[in-house]
Amino acid sequence: MPDGATILHADLDAFYASVEQLLDPALRGRPIAVGGSPSGGVVLAASYEAKAFGVQGGMPGWRAARLCPDLTFVRGSFARYQPLADRVMDILGDVTPLVQRISVDEAFLDVSGAVHLFGPPASIGALIRRRVRAEVGLAISVGAARTKHLAKVASQVAKPDGLVVVEPGHERAFLDPLPVALMWGVGPVTERQLAERGIRTVGDLAAAPGPMLERLLGRPGGTLHALALDEDPRRVATSSRARSVGAQSALGRRDPTPELVRSVLSHLAERVAGRLRAKDRAGRTVTVRVRFAGMRAVTRSLTLAAPVSSTLTLTEVAERLVRQALDDQDGDPEITLLAISVSNLAAQPSIQLELPLPPPDPWRPGSATGSARWALDRSMDAARARFGKDAVGYLPATLGRTGGVPDDLRELAQRDL
DNA sequence: TCTGGGGTCCTAGGACCC
DNA sequence: TCTGGGGTCCTAGGACCC
After folding, report:
1. Which of A82, A87, A164, A305 could be bridged to A154 by S-S, CB 3.0 to 4.6 A?
2. Proportion of chain A in helix, strand, coil states, percent, rounded to 5
3. Is residue A239 part of a domain?
4. Does residue A392 share a domain with residue A327?
5. Containing domain of residue A276, as a range?
6. A211 beta carbon < 7 A from strand B?
7. Whole-prediction pTM value?
């Protein structure tokens, strides 16, 4: 364990909303929401002026509008976000190569090797904040502590636009009064379960008996207890490879006709399989998710004998799983979302060995199989790379492109494979 | 008038193997 | 004829994070 507060967590404040205010001065100082509208959709990010009214990311637009009548809804300039965030990460990289980016707008740094160059962690945090403000124009909050968990909590406490250093020896005084919900891994459900047992602060959690927490929450309870006791062994590590790749599409309320299901799944499969092929990867387990009106959702999955990265094969497997999920329902419920995810990932050999599906197998007459599909996918990938994403596509996928979320936004949330 | 899209990890039961 | 114990994989569901 490092002996100084040499783990930093740097987190851009209300990132999407701050970028909009940076790009359009008329929005500065005003409550704004990126995404959503007073009639529907969800708010992706809220400015601090909007947060003061209780508006939060993930909230339905109509609720946000009710909480804050003066709220301005702006369409996101999604293509601008990634490059700006990348410039911030470059600034972090100037301090140390030990940067672990955990999302588009936040990262951990291990600065133990940088203190002799830049001074103590507090000075490094101040330097980062100054440079990001001057060179990118955005506010970034920084927490510094001996562990990752504490550094992350400190950056949340520092917001907005602040710096909090938890000096070694002062951890308990810092942690004990904080609400448990500030801890990494405590969401609404866990918060409620803990509250029912009178556990409201991190200090309460640290004082609680470990075995009771494990009975209540399983192994995560043990982990949580350790974090409350400030035992966090995790190191700053440059990011690992993705374990799954997926795509989803919200549909409104729709009747799940075979045509609709086929067309949406083609679109999703093309995105997922295309990303896999672009990285020479493939996966054996295909999982679909179907959400019904009322937010109830089911998943169905199948592990194949060989990994897939072919759009057509993925579409067919997904279609069969969705059919199965729909057949398991009573009546004919409307669906509101379809999703495909591929896991059990492996490197894809240069020649794809794709085994036929287990029976019963709905191969349609004349459909290409195995290496023919592989060649078809590769040539379509090449055409898209040259002429644009919509240049070519499988018929149902091209027909199925009805509005939806901009690709720029999808890419923001993606992990590198 | 229920609410996006991308992920991670954990649990529990059953199948199967040694 | 019934019986031990451990390990791995698969499937479905759920909590959580940004």
Report:
1. A164
2. 45, 20, 35
3. no
4. yes
5. 244-411
6. no
7. 0.91
